[in-house]
Design goal:
Among the domains are: 100 residues, Winged helix-like DNA-binding domain superfamily/Winged helix DNA-binding domain (Arc Repressor Mutant, subunit A), CATH 1.10.10.10; 78 residues, no CATH class. The protein is built from 13 helices and five strands. It has a three-stranded antiparallel beta sheet with strand order 3-5-4. Helix 1 packs across helix 3 and helix 7 packs antiparallel against helix 8. The longest helix has 39 residues. The protein is elongated.
């Protein structure tokens, strides 16, 4: 009951008396679109061009309009002679479970002559070219917008590289950022990054301790910075040799002492040999006992 085809409405339809009545206008446009564009046959009946086989129930389902509004719209269109109920004329039935509406002046909207068809065919290359150009321009605009967003986007790595912090602290922070990325919790905004830096500066003012704090969070997959939990994380801070060490005079070891130390180390590394019972007794000074056991 219809196919892919063109229907046309002239701009003058905006002056139509029912144009501003939403339900009436929707029903009329729907019937024009659904109407047969050529004579056809349906269930034993000859359906002329410009007719629609339908029912109020079907129209209600297709348009989403209440039954009362469908009745009112049909009344408006029939009274203004835009459509005509030709069910009885075609079927000779006094009652039927369907309705056949005829759209008056259907050719005015369909334009089924060869000239109109040729115009439509000729316009298709231009229309297709316009659509292709539009899609191309839209794609280019999308690329440009995406490119501008990337330029304007915040980069934590750039912030780190531009900072005056030590190289060791930079490497520690980059490792922390990589951990956050692997956890699918990347630091993506300037506000989040500055908040982390503020927390780190509150915890310590010392560069080595900051590195230890960052490494602690990276190792434990923490999303933020926290105080050091164990003392062994801390590195000596500006601790030189004690005064007494510098004043003490140390004498170098003698060659004999070095030789004895090397011999002791060699003996300790040698595997122990299993002794016989006689050798064991002799080493204990019991080899001259008058009895055996």
């Amino acid at each position: 009951m219809g196919g892919n085809r063109w229907v046309k409405f002239w701009e003058s339809i905006t002056q139509w008396e029912w144009y501003k009545d939403a339900n009436t206008a929707r029903l009329f446009f729907h019937l024009v679109i659904k109407a047969q564009y050529k004579d056809t046959r349906w269930q034993g009946y000859d359906i002329p061009k410009g007719c629609v086989v339908t029912s109020r129930k079907r129209l209600r389902e297709e348009l989403g309009i209440s039954d009362q509004n469908i009745r009112t719209a049909i009344k408006h269109l029939t009274k203004s002679e835009n459509i005509k109920n030709v069910t009885n004329e075609i079927t000779n039935l006094s009652k039927a479970n369907f309705t056949i509406f005829k759209v008056e002046n259907y050719d005015y909207f369909q334009g089924g002559n060869e000239q109109d068809n040729q115009q439509v065919t000729n316009s298709q290359p231009t229309d297709n070219q316009q659509v292709t150009t539009y899609k191309k321009d839209k794609k280019e605009r999308s690329k440009e917008i995406k490119k501008n967003k990337q330029k304007e986007s915040f980069s934590v790595k750039d912030e780190i590289e531009k900072s005056e912090m030590s190289e060791e602290l930079k490497l520690a922070l980059l490792g922390f950022l990589e951990m956050r990325k692997n956890q699918k919790k990347p630091v993506a905004t300037a506000r989040a990054w500055h908040g982390l830096l503020n927390d780190l500066n509150k915890l310590s003012n010392n560069n080595d301790e900051k590195i230890a704090i960052v490494d602690q969070s990276t190792k434990n997959c923490w999303l933020g910075f926290y105080g050091l939990k164990q003392d062994y994380y801390k590195k000596p801070i500006n601790q030189g040799l004690p005064d007494w060490y510098a004043k003490t005079e140390f004498e170098p070891a003698s060659p004999e002492l070095i030789e004895k130390a090397l011999e002791a180390q060699r003996r300790a590394s040698e595997p122990k040999k299993k002794q016989s019972r006689t050798e064991a007794l002799k080493s204990m000074g019991l080899d001259d006992l008058p009895f055996d056991f």
